[in-house]
Amino acid sequence: MAANKDMFLWWGSGSPPCWKPMLVLAEKEMWEGLPNKLISFDKKENKEADILAANPRGQVPTFKDGSLVVNESNAICMYLEEKYSNDSNRLLPVDVEKRSQVYWRMFESGNIQSNITVPIVYLIWNTKPEDRNQAELDEKFTKAKEELGYWERTLTGRSYLVGDRFTMADVFFYPFVAFLVRLGATLREFPALKQYYDLISQRPTVQATWPPHWKEGSTAPILAAL
User: Which segment of the chain is annotated as a signal peptide (predicted)?
Assistant: First the structure.
C-alpha cells in the first residue's frame, strides 16, 4: 500500500512492544518502505525532541499516520487493524465469538512480561550477582516455568494460538517468546511452545521485521534454565 508514505514509526530493536506494530504493518504489506527511525535506548534517543513532541512520555513505539499520532503498542496495532484491514490481511476474525478468543489470548499474553521478564530479566540486568538472593531467584524461575507450562498446554496440538491461521493473538504473543529465546531460553521442557516458536520464526513478516541487532551475535544466556 502506498498509504505508508504518510506514516512514521519510532522503534527500538528487540523490544516486544515495538515489534508488535511492525508485524501488523508487515502483515498488511505496509512495512517495506515505511518511513521510520530506529532509536538507541543506550543513548536515550527516546527522550529526544522529535519523539517527545509526539509522545510526551518519551516511549517507543511512537507512531504517526499523517497528522494523527497514536502511541502505546496495543493501540497502534488496533488502529492499523481497524483502518487498513481487508479480507486478505485481516488479523481479527469478523465473527464476534471467534474474535473474542483472539482478544482473550492477546490480552493474556502480557503475563509473559509480568511473570518472567519483569521479575527475572529486569532483576538480573539491574543487580550485581553478589547482590542477588539465589533462593528467591530460583523461586522466580519456578514460577516462570509454571507460566510457560500454561502456554505449553494451550499450544499442544495447535500451530497458532487461535484457530488455524496467524492472528493478532500471535502478533501479541510471539515477540515475548522470541525475547525469552534471545536471552537463552531453550524451551526444552516445552516442545509445543518450541515448535510454535520455530514455525512463527520462519514467517516472512517475522523475518522482515527481525530485530537488527539480534543478527549481529548472541547475548548472555541469562534464561538458560528455561
Answer: none
Residues 157 and 210 in one domain: yes
Same domain, 110 and 210: yes
Grid cell of 76 as nine digits: 497502534
Q: What is the dihedral of CA 203, 208, 210, 214, to 10 degrees?
A: 120
Distance of alpha carbon 12 from alpha carbon 81, whole angstroms: 21
DSSP annotation of 193: H
Domain membership flag for residue 184: yes
Residue 88: per-residue pLDDT: 93
Query: Among residues of the chain, what percentage have pLDDT more than 70?
Result: 99
Domain for residue 194, yes or no?
yes
CA 226 centroid distance within chain: 19
* φ and ψ at residue 42, rounded to 5 degrees: -60, -35
Contacts 24+ apart (CB under 8 A), 83-90: 84/1, 84/3, 84/28, 84/30, 85/28, 89/27, 89/28, 89/29
pTM across the whole model: 0.95
Give how many domains the chain has, as a whole number: 2
pLDDT of residue 135: 94
Strand 36-39 and strand 7-12: the pairing is: parallel
* Mean pLDDT, the chain, whole residue set: 96
CATH assignment of the domain containing 74 = 3.40.30.10
What does the pLDDT look like over 36-58, one tens digit per residue?
Answer: 999 998 898 989 999 999 999 99
